[in-house]
C-alpha cells in the first residue's frame, strides 16, 4: 500500500459515512447571440447599391421621350402611336398627385380601360419641371411621375406599347398607351 492509499483510508475513517451529493447544475452562461446572416446582409446592401446606380443611370429627365414596344407588336404600330395616328379613347391626368396616389390612380385607370375594351389611352404625367421632387432611392431631382409611369407601364402584361405624345397632345409631358385587346390578354 502506498502513502496515498493510506491517506485516503485515514480520511474516510475520520469523516465517517458519506452521502454522495447530486451533481450541481452548471451556472447559467450568457446567451449566445442570435445568428446573423452577414453574407446575406452584404448581398442585400450590394444589391440596393446596384439598384440605386441602375436607377440613377436610367432616370428620365423632363424633356426625354418615353418609348416602349413589346417584341410581338410590329414596329410600324409603334410609329403610328408615336405620330398620334391611333385615336385616344380615354385620358388620365396625374397633375398634382403624389407618387403613391398617382400609382393607385394609374393602376385603377388601366384596369378600368381593360374592363371596357379601351385600346388606346393618354396619361398626362407632366414634365416634372415644377414638382421639385426627388426620385426615391436616388435623391436626384427628376420628374417623379414621369419615371413612375414609365416603370409601371413596362411591368404590365396588358400594355403592348407606349410613347411620348406628339407635341399637340402633350409632348414629353404625356404618354400614349396601346393596350392589348381583351381576348389576347392573359387571364
UniProtKB/TrEMBL annotation:
InterPro entries: Smr_dom (IPR002625), Smr_dom_sf (IPR036063). SMART domains: SMR (SM00463). Gene3D superfamilies: 3.30.1370.110. Residues 1-45 are annotated as: Disordered. Residues 92-180 form the Smr domain. This is Smr/MutS family protein. It comes from Lysobacter yangpyeongensis. The lineage of its organism: Bacteria, Pseudomonadati, Pseudomonadota, Gammaproteobacteria, Lysobacterales.
Amino acid at each position: 500500500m502506498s502513502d496515498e492509499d493510506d491517506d485516503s483510508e485515514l480520511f474516510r475513517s475520520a469523516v465517517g459515512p458519506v452521502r454522495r451529493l447530486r451533481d450541481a447544475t452548471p451556472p447559467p452562461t450568457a446567451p449566445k447571440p442570435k445568428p446573423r446572416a452577414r453574407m446575406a446582409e452584404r448581398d442585400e446592401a450590394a444589391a440596393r447599391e446596384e439598384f440605386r446606380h441602375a436607377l440613377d443611370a436610367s432616370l428620365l429627365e423632363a424633356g426625354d421621350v418615353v418609348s416602349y414596344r413589346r417584341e410581338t407588336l410590329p414596329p410600324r404600330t409603334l410609329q403610328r402611336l408615336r405620330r398620334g395616328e391611333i385615336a385616344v379613347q380615354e385620358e388620365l391626368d396625374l397633375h398634382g398627385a403624389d407618387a403613391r396616389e398617382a400609382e393607385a390612380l394609374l393602376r385603377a385607370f388601366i384596369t378600368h380601360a381593360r374592363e371596357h375594351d379601351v385600346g388606346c389611352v393618354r396619361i398626362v404625367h407632366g414634365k416634372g419641371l415644377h414638382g421639385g421632387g426627388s426620385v426615391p432611392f436616388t435623391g436626384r431631382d427628376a420628374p417623379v411621375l414621369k419615371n413612375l409611369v414609365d416603370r409601371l407601364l413596362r411591368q404590365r402584361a396588358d400594355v403592348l406599347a407606349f410613347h411620348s405624345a406628339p407635341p399637340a397632345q402633350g409632348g414629353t409631358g404625356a404618354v400614349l398607351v396601346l393596350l392589348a385587346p381583351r381576348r389576347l390578354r392573359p387571364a
